[in-house]
Amino acid sequence: MKKTKELFYLIKFIDQRYINSFLEKGQIHYEPLYYFSELERKTGDRRIGDAFEGNACFNPINLPIFFLMKNKKGKVIKAVPFKNNNLRMVKGLPEKLKQRIGICSFFYVAAEDLEYFTGKDGNRYYKFNDRIISELVNFIKKDDRIPVMIHNIPEFAKRCEKQHSPLKPVYYYDESDFNNWDSITTNSPIFYSQLKRKVYSGQHEVRLLKILKELNEGENIEIGNIKTIARVLDRDGLCNDKYIFKC
User: Fold this and answer.
1) Among residues 108, 231, 237, 115, which one has the least CA distance to residue 172?
2) Neighbours of 94 (CB within 10 A)
3) What domain count does the chain have?
4) Residue 84 lies in a domain
5) Domain of 175?
6) What span, in angstroms and rounded, lies between the C-alpha atoms of 7 and 160?
7) What is the mean pLDDT of residues 154-183?
8) Does 127 fall in a domain?
9) pLDDT surpassing 60 at residue 85
10) How far is CA 8 from CA 11, 130, 133, 194, in A?
11) What is the per-residue pLDDT across 46-57, written as a single tens digit (0 to 9) for each?
12) Which of 147, 146, 157, 133 has the alpha carbon at shortest distance from 207?
């Protein structure tokens, strides 16, 4: 996200086996950044995996690049155009720090993702707009996990903060735009754990960050029963405009 957005809901996609522990205990699972970078490298998974997790990268695909041919006197005699989509400039966290920082990701729904209307009863209602529904469908079409919606984000974030796990926005950047380079590489090192390339922006991600106790090992925390601030959603209903909320 380029700037802070007004978030209405967080949606977490959870394996059916862990629904009860998430709702009744507030059990949250973290995996190290390194896990997600290795997931793409080893399996080619670009839906959850990201080889550049924990890094900023610049791909000069739109910049003219030339090999300069020189004579013995060092004078340039020919410039040969060069284009390579895999040529990247990368800066980010060292591998050990990627193995120490854990993340837990959520799909966010912001104010701009809602469509408001007046019902036949004269009351005002809102629902997810077509764009966000399309992104949700794209996100879960190859996934059988269950969506759980957190509708009280401040309370949820406060409980996580007490467990030393802040809720942070993900900043999506265009890797082909060199003008971004200075702004995304001059922040504190932990900022790299909040960066994602623009190609992933449809994931609408915010994430909890946590320093893991064990290097490159997943970890759980518990924030207590969250049934009053979260609800399980129906997958088909979520993707077919079922959910309508009263203002």
Assistant:
1) 108
2) 10
3) 1
4) no
5) 7-57+92-246
6) 17
7) 91
8) yes
9) no
10) 10, 16, 15, 20
11) 778 888 999 998
12) 157
- Do residues 58 and 87 make contact, with C-beta atoms less than 8 angstroms apart? no
pLDDT band, very low/low/confident/very high, at 63 (cuts 50, 70, 90):
low
Domain membership of residue 70 (yes or no) is no
Give the integer Cα–Cα distance in Å for 2 and 60. 21
**Strand-pair partners of 232:** 148
What's the pTM value of the predicted model, to 2 decimals?
0.86
Closest to 156 (Cα-Cα) out of 80, 226, 69: 226
Cα separation, 185 vs 61, in Å, equals 19
Task: Report the DSSP beta bridge partners of residue 140.
Answer: none
Find residue 230's DSSP bridge partners: 150
Provide the percentage of residues in the chain whose pLDDT is more than 90. Answer: 57
Kindly state whether residue 213 falls inside one of the protein's structural domains. yes
How far apart (Å, rounded) are the C-alpha atoms in residues 112 and 102?
29
Question: What is the bridge-based pairing of β-strands 114-118 and 124-128?
Answer: antiparallel
Q: Give the Cα separation of 111 and 8 in Å (integer).
A: 6
Q: Around 88, how many Cα atoms within 13 Å sit in the side-chain half-sphere?
A: 16
pLDDT, greater one: 173 or 85? 173
Q: SS in 3 state form for the chain?
A: CCCCCCEEEEEEEECHHHHHHHHHHCEEEEEEHHHHHHHHHHHCCCCCCCCCCCEEEECCCCCCEEEEEECCCCCEEEEEEECCCCCCEEEECCHHHHHHEEEEEEEEEEHHHEEEEECCCCCEEEEECHHHHHHHHHHHCCCCCEEEEECCHHHHHHHHHHCCCCEEECEEECCCCHHHHHHHHCCCHHHHHHEEEHHHHHHCEEEEEEECCCCCCCEEEECCCCCCCEEECCHHHHHCCCCEEEC
